[in-house]
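Predict the assembly for these three chains.
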Amino acid sequence: MAEKPQIADYGGDKYKYGFVTDIKSDTAPCGLNEDIIRLISAKKNEPQWLLERRLKAYRHWLTMSEPHWAKLKYDEIDFQALRYYSAPVQKVKPKSLEEVDKNLLDTYNKLGIPLKEQEALAGVVAVDAVFDSVSVATTYRAKLAEQGIIFCSISEAVQNHPDLVQKYLGSVVPYTDNFYACLNSAVFTDGSFVYIPKGVKSPLELSTYFRINAKNTGQFERTLIVAEDDSYVSYLEGCTAPQRDENQLHAAIVEIVVMNNAEVKYSTVQNWYPGDKDGKGGVYNFVTKRAACRGNNAKISWTQVETGSAVTWKYPSCVLQGDNSVGEFYSVAITNNKQQADTGTKMIHIGKNTRSKIISKGISAGFSNQTYRGLVDVAPNADKARNYSQCDSLLIGSTCGSHTVPYIRNRNKSAVLEHEATTSKISEEQLFYCMQRGLNAEEAVGLIVNGFCKEVMQKLPMEFAIEAAKLINISLEGSVG
Amino acid sequence: MSLLQNINLWGDDIPYLSGLREKSLISFEKNGLPNPKTEAWRYSYFREEDLQNPQIDNEPVKCDGHCHNGDELPFDALQIKYCNGKLHINDWNAPKGVTIKSLIEAIYDGDIKSYLNKSFNADDFPFAALNGVYLEQGLFILIERGTVLEEPLYIKYHNHADKNRLCNIRNVIVAENRAKATIIEHFCAEERALYTQNTVNEIFVGSNAKLQHYVWQNEAKNAHHIALNSVQVKEGGNYAAFYANGVCGFSRHESYIRLLQEGAGAEVNGVYKLSEANQVCDISTNIRHLAPHTYSNQLVKGVAKTKAKGVFQGQIHIAPDAQQAEGHQLHRALLLDDNAEIDCKPELEVFADDVKCSHGASSGDLDREQIFYMQARGIGEDEARNILVDAYLNEVFALNENQDISEWIKAQF
Amino acid sequence: MSDFLLQIKNLHAGITDDKKEIIKGLSLDIKAGEVHAIMGPNGAGKSTLSYVLTGKSDYEVTAGDIIFNGKNLLELSPSERASEGLFLSMQYPVAIPGVTTNVFLKHAINAQRKYKGLPELDAAEFLKLIRGAAKEFDVSSEMLKREINVGFSGGEKKRLEILQLSLLQPSLAILDEADSGLDIDALRTVAEGVNKWHNQNNSLLIITHHLDLLNYIRPDFVHIYADGHIVKSGSMELAEDLEANGYRNYLEE
């Protein structure tokens, strides 16, 4: 009979990245206390100031409580049951890709981002791969170094560029910022560091892949990007995690500093394991991402495609301090089964003539719940600030929920702010038209959803866009049947 | 807490009434007044000390006739008055099919029991809980099944400057099936009066009934005005509200509307013009679509002419079974002063997939091109601005079904 | 197997969730190579027939059989029916924001190839195919880049439907009021396109309420449809009589 779109059972078994890599990890015992933090710091051979910062953050964290304002429901996280350090054991620090553990490289091959192939791709992308919490290999470093670009793990940066790290780390997201950021500031193990010197346009798109592997591990990576005057960089971040029954915690911080006339594009494709169809397992993703446009005419653009994680709590933000600076946020978030996402952005207009744009597309299916939560704040001196926000939601089926919670605060009379939002569903007419031309219901939904998200997908770099389009189809599998 | 005062109120000997007061007290003691972390009050931060220790008096109404000033309405209406928070008991000469009595009388008679305190949970509304602690002053208005009330019911609240009072008033308004009525609430006071007005209206709109509700809130500059309109609408019923905010220093006008059955609908429109320094005007709505084919429309427009704060928080909630519900919401504001602030939180909460929902918000200055065009035609800049502001707000006034009432408010606005 | 491409036997159907019957005992046989026209007044439920044939879920068959290419059509989903060779040119083609015409066509072609067990076309093969066809049917490459049916004029939409007809190569095409909203030039283009596609092995079912399109695509059989079934069948002369004298004579019968 006729195919009528309806919710069908769909297991999380289709998560194609749900394998576990069998390599030995050098892990700390479960639990968190000052000794663990000292251990992490010692393992990484950190300078005293960093240890002190970690301890200060930890002591502050003890005074904080987990926030509950987001529309998210999840079992309380037992922070003492987590492991705060887990590094793959390698005999010697690798000097090149060839020296990296073969199992690790296979993992990346399975992820579809083989490091080797990156080389073959004639230097399109430079990858810094973060496995659990330690940066494994950084490719193309030499080529980038010729231009003075530093692209390395944050641990290496601490050793080799301590002045830069000390100057900028925590300058955009202070440890007091929020509960998860504070925890990260105490226990972060690795992440990426990017420094683009004055006047340099990065010839490559820089890319990091995060993957959580070990059991009961919290992944607390820390990314710091500094773009000096007149520089440009496009940074890509991809995330996956193996399929496990227990929940894995991911609490990262990304800080970006953009100086005069500089531009940073930050793209994320996040497909952490979302849990199975009953909501068992999956990654808890609590991330603080913030960019400060410190200079005039600075520009930051966040693009994200979020299809994974059991719980997402993430608000990539732009602090537009410099005059004429520009902040953009393009987001596609898809939730299916029992996934929950509370995500959005903050645009803080401080400088004059600052402009921001928010395009958010949310798709909910199955029994999932999704919230767009955004803030547009115009300070009294932000003359002629402009914001345009558009938040569209698409619901597939009647057992999911979609919420839009924009906070808009304007304290400047010359500012012009516009917010539009719609909620709709895929029309029967559209589905029928596609099906009449031979597409089955799922293909039709995938096609229509990709069309719905097009404005955002176009902002992704090419190779990311293709992967993201596929991901959208995968994550909506079983939403109609 | 100085807002809890140990005084004797009428009807303490009625177990039903004292039970309601006790229940409200438990809620109020548990939740207290809104604080900076109370999400629903995040923009209109309320400080108890600003109320300057208002008194709750249990004296009978004393009226020197002040409240009769300006009674000449340009339309026929059935008039009911509150003076310093006390109801003027009167023979209101209610038309056939309409019951008007004081809250206490209705409690004695028992006919209010299926309505009073039934439309909201006091834990969610701190001031309504406080209102319940002092449940005494108020009205019970019932428009019987199929009754069409031709003349509007005009309720006037007037406050004197003699004493700082906390006036807790509870009105229960019931429009039974297919009834039709218009209610006007007019809040006014002597210019220098200092008081806190805390009213709660519980409104029940029956099947295919229609209730229009106009509120002209023109409290004194020093006053605090806090109002909750808790509304339920049944199958095919319609509740249409219009709110105009005058010079009151701190006001919060909240609508909590539940569309309970198929085809129920609500319109909630409002205007505010902030021209007094440090004025705060908070308009909050929560419209809950709980059945299929329910609909709602909201248009709120405001102008801030000085260092003042305009707040709009609007929530549209669509329940899982409320297919083909339609909810639209728009807030627009003009900032005409460097120190003005507009805070807006238009919120959609959707659990059904076959719905049409939209919200929009914008804020900005007047269009310079338009001002210039008028100047080029010989109109002075100030006048041009006034014309544009009036035109801006007129869009909302024009939506009112009863243009006599609308014009009357506009003339004073 | 019979030599009929399509057999409709005593079909009864209506809108799902609605008790009212719209098609009341309709029978029709179409052989390969034939052109049939169904004519009937506005609002008689002609479009219902096209939706029931293509399997739109809003419609429900309460009795009767439809055999297409030897298969029971009622057991197939809309996309399976399409892949089996049933094409409906819609009166009001639907807009799908964000999906370009190119992307849509590629998905449709490959979905049907997959169904038939053929390898999917890669980007280069697809482009070659579509460029050739687009040129033939007066569809500009700019139109192919636009979002499908979004902001298209009536003529553009219909030209695109015919382009799809030629690309998908169905064995039976149903043209539902294919001439609505077209001026004479556009009508001619559409008709020419249909005639180019039509051959001995495929068939046409034209649903229309006036003669215009039939002057360009000559039907072998004309059926008058009223009150849920076919009241009279004949040749082109029947259509001409209708145009001259209206439906009244047939409705009163």
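The mean pLDDT of chain B is 90. The radius of gyration of chain B is 21 Å.
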